[in-house]
Write a structure and sequence with these properties.
Layout lengths: L1 E4 L5 H11 L6 H9 L4 E8 L2 E11 L2 E9 L8 H15 L4 E3 L7 H9 L8
Parallel strand pairs: 4-5
Antiparallel strand pairs: 1-2, 2-3, 3-4
Length: 126
């Protein structure tokens, strides 16, 4: 598995993943903006043999990091893909001297909450 920067060519597969994983998903224009225009944003994909396994994105805003999205294709869950993407995002935030990292998650998304707790996240607001 390779994790690399997301490109515009990845967007058809990313949009299919979004539709499969999220009820309220980002649209293609939002992803285009994150890739091409938002200097605070980093968007990544996990791929294997040209197949998209997962995608994630994050911001580094001076001393704060923010996870904006993370998704793994349901057919590939349980292989550590989301954990690997989290490790890469958090490591980059450390390199950039982020003092905090935040994210939002739906209260009923138990799998995501478990992942975030594994990385030391705590609930601040509900």
């Amino acid at each position: 598995m390779e994790i690399r920067k997301m490109t515009l060519e990845d967007l058809p597969q990313v949009m299919a993943l979004e539709r499969e994983c999220f009820q309220d998903h980002w649209d293609m224009e939002a992803y285009r903006y994150e890739i091409e225009e938002n200097s605070f944003s980093t968007m990544l994909v996990a791929v294997e043999d040209e197949e998209l396994l997962g995608a994630c994105g994050y911001y580094i805003l001076f001393e704060e990091g923010q996870v904006t999205t993370i998704a793994t294709d349901p057919a590939y869950r349980g292989r550590g893909i989301a954990s690997t993407m989290m490790e890469i995002m958090l490591a980059d935030m450390v390199v950039h001297d982020c003092e905090t990292c935040s994210l939002e998650v739906r209260v009923h998304n138990e799998a995501a909450i478990h992942l975030y707790e594994k990385f030391g996240f705590i609930t601040v607001n509900v």
